[in-house]
Each structure stands twice: as structure tokens, then as C-alpha cells.
Amino acid sequence: MSTPPVHLASAHTRGIPATTTAPRGAASDTGTGGLTASGPVMAGTGWRIATQCNVYCLSPSQQYTVTFPTQALKDRYVPYLTAAVAQLVTAGVKLAIGGIETPDYSTVPPRGHLQYGEAYRPIGTPGYSQGLPCWNTADNSVWGGYVLIDSEYWDGTWTLTETKRKNILVHELCHALGLDHCNSDMNNDGKIDAYETVKDATGVTPLMTSPNGGYQDARAGTLTPYDLAGIRQLLANATALGVA
């Protein structure tokens, strides 16, 4: 794997628009050599793929593994991720909870690794966390990614309900897997506002809504049908693009 020259675009839990830097890519000896096939779909009702990060698909054969910098953080985060990981596996993502490894934020993670961490105000703004997909330059699939959770959620300096905490931990995982914020101009006024997105018949918004979406009941911390549709399309795009 070659070391990329630049960083990738950021996708954040709270607020529109996200502050971004340039994309980060990782080179591979396998793949299609770029976008060579037609047929991928990048957005739909209640979901959007993070094409600004050069992500077009999830490899259906790649093993993706969530890792943590310390055992203490693994113990803290795993209960928030377990149900969503099971949903993603059912949807077709080869995803597992892994062990402990030290992230190196100066380069891409090992292939397939989704590295969780914690930092005080990762983007310098109170209450913001960060989910970052890295893209495989050979085939535009998700290579791996980073998640940095704002430590303010745990130290008492940022008021956050347990429901929102559950949704945020999984929202950022979905960013690392290639989903973008799904907000759209629902009222046709020419702008996209915070919280402006599709709702189901019961008023539930997609988990990937910015700044906060998803179930607001016992189902918090799981993907809605909208989000799962986006994940399935990421996998379907791999077939359309000839990505193994």
C-alpha cells in the first residue's frame, strides 16, 4: 500500500456543511483500475454516498474490521455498535468487531480497518464527531476509515442524551463505510437545512440525517430502512463497477 499525499474529505455528525479537506486515497494492486463500468447509483430516497471522498462502493469480499486504540475504549464503544454491526452483516457487509491497534492519522489505516478513537473536539467545534472513509484508488471502493468521537460526550461538558449518543456512534460508522449526510431540499426553497430530510410515516428520519437523525426510541443506535438501502446500494455498485 502506498502512502497517500493528501487527506480525505470529512463528514461530521452535527451540522451542515461539513468542513472538508482534500481526499485521501490508498493504492492497491487489485481492482478495476478506476471507474470503468457504468451503472452505479450514488443517491436515493433518504441516503447518499460520499462521492466527495471518491467512494462509490463497498467491496462485497473485503473483510472490514472495527478496531480501537485501547481496551477501555473498546469496552465503552462496543455496546453501542453491536446491534448495527449485526444489521450490516445481514445486509451483506463483511464486518466484524476487532481488537486493539494504535491508529496512525498521518496515513491510511490497514486495508479493511475502521479505526475508532476519541479526541476532544476532533474538528475544533464543540459537540462534533468525525467519520472518515478512505478510498481505494484502484477501484473507488471503501479501503477503510477512521472515526473520532468527541470526548465531550463522556466528560460532562456536552449535554447529550443516551439516545443521541447511540445514534452518533453508529452514524459515524456509516460515514466510514461510505454514506454521506442524506439531507435534501424537501420544501424546494433552494437550500438544504439542518434536519431537512425525508421522514417515514411515523416521523422517523434516516440515521444519516444531519445534525441528528435516526430512531428516537429503543431502536436508537440501529440503521433505518433508508440507511440500509444506501448500504445495499454501495454493495450493488461494486457489482456494477466490477469490484470483487
Strand count? 9
Strand content: 15-25%
**Low-pLDDT residue intervals, each spanning 5 or more residues:** 1-23, 28-37
**Mean pLDDT score:** 86
User: Which structural class do you get from the secondary structure elements?
Assistant: alpha/beta
Q: Nearest-angstrom radius of gyration?
A: 17 Å
Give the proportion of residues in helices.
Answer: 10-25%
Q: What's the total helix number?
A: 4
CA-based shape:
globular
Major sheet summary line: 7 strands, mixed
Written as H for each helix and E for each strand, in order along the chain, the element string is EEEEEHEEEEHHH
Distance between the termini: 18 Å
What does this structure look like?
The protein is an alpha/beta fold and 244 residues long. The chain contains four helices and nine strands, in the order βββββαββββααα. The protein has helices at 71-91, 152-155, 162-176, 225-241; strands at 11-12, 25-26, 43-44, 47-48, 64-68, 95-100, 113-119, 130-136, 142-150. Strands 1, 2, 5, 6, 7, 8 and 9 form a seven-stranded mixed beta sheet that branches. The protein has a two-stranded antiparallel sheet with strand order 3-4. A hairpin with a 2-residue loop joins strand 3 (43-44) and strand 4. The two termini are 18 Å apart. Residues 1-23 and 28-37 have low confidence and may be disordered.
